[in-house]
């Protein structure tokens, strides 16, 4: 069974004016193929914890000449293991679990946010398995469909005036400066490269060294404020109390 997600609504000029795409739950589409819009948020389950002894696989399919990119925003799958994960998520570069696996031999588990995954074709398959005793929340991903830029094209630009990331992928203009970094290098939310406005756009353009410098400066400022508060509190509490001897008249 194929499930087609909601698409953005455009006006007569072709510009996006309402986005009706909402979060979808993988648990509702096990063993199905999901037709992707340009951007889609997916969560494993709507419950607080995912089910015990559960098996679910789903194939994500972009339109022709596009690839699938997933970025994890929340990740809580069992406990991290050195060899094999008992609760595990596996990602395959294709339309089935027989395709080439993109994750390591042990799969994905634990609480650390995994890296971004990008397929080489228009399909990507997710396979999830849980054990019989578990209390983990699952994961949430943001899925983006990228057009593939051809280096040997005559124009040397992305088709349909789409935005070119700093790699070989093209992004629909409706996803540029929308507050969600879709390109792997976040260039679609950059003030310099995409003309985005706001503090976060300027922050993206800063070098790693500049970001570290800002972080260290803020940390030192907070530490200084904490020490000032502690010093003032201790100084006031350590004030000496003068006792006047009582003399009987």
Question: Your description of this structure?
Answer:
The chain has 249 residues and is α+β, with helices and mostly antiparallel strands. It has helices at residues 199-205, 208-237; strands at 2-4, 9-10, 16-18, 24-25, 32-35, 39-43, 55-61, 66-76, 88-93, 100-101, 117-118, 123-129, 138-148, 163-164, 169-171. The strands form 3 sheets. Strands 4, 6, 8, 11, 13, 14 and 15 form a 7-stranded mixed β-sheet that branches. Strands 1-5-7-12-9-10 form a 6-stranded mixed β-sheet, with no helix packed on it. The chain is flat. Mean pLDDT is 82; it is low at 1-20.
Main structural class: alpha+beta
The end-to-end distance, rounded to whole angstroms, is 102 Å
* Strand residues, percent: 25-35%
Round the mean pLDDT to the nearest integer and report it: 82
| Residue share in helix | 10-25%
Oligomer: single chain
Number of helices: 2
Q: N-to-C SSE series?
A: EEEEEEEEEEEEEEEHH
Work out the radius of gyration. 26 Å
How many beta-strand elements? 15
Largest sheet: 7 strands, mixed
What's the shape? flat
Low-pLDDT stretches are 1-20
Which properties best describe this structure?
249 residues; alpha+beta; disordered N terminus; six-stranded mixed beta sheet; seven-stranded mixed beta sheet; flat
